[in-house]
What does this fold into?
Amino acid sequence: MRYLVIYRPEAGEEGGQPDPAHMAAMGKLVDEMTRAGSLIATEPLAARSHGGRVRRHGNEFTVADKGERAAGYAFLNANSRDEALELCKSFLQIAGDGVTELRQVIEFAPPQA
It folds into this structure.
């Protein structure tokens, strides 16, 4: 099963550069998860000032310059929800205080020819 994980740090400035030791620890975790086949992709996200939120209600669209703060995302491959949750906990051990939102990706089978 595939999962989308969105990471929202609890505190700190957006766009700040983490220290080298933190980056090395995160790089090691990413490498381990990739080699194990658990990590499909991950990327940091730019500050919310570089994005926006578009909402539709009927025929009306509203654009907000800022949405919820999110520092990064990952796509995981796990055998169960519990396994995916454990991967999130491993990430937070290095990332620090914050929240990861875990969502299972619905996978549709391709049409049979």
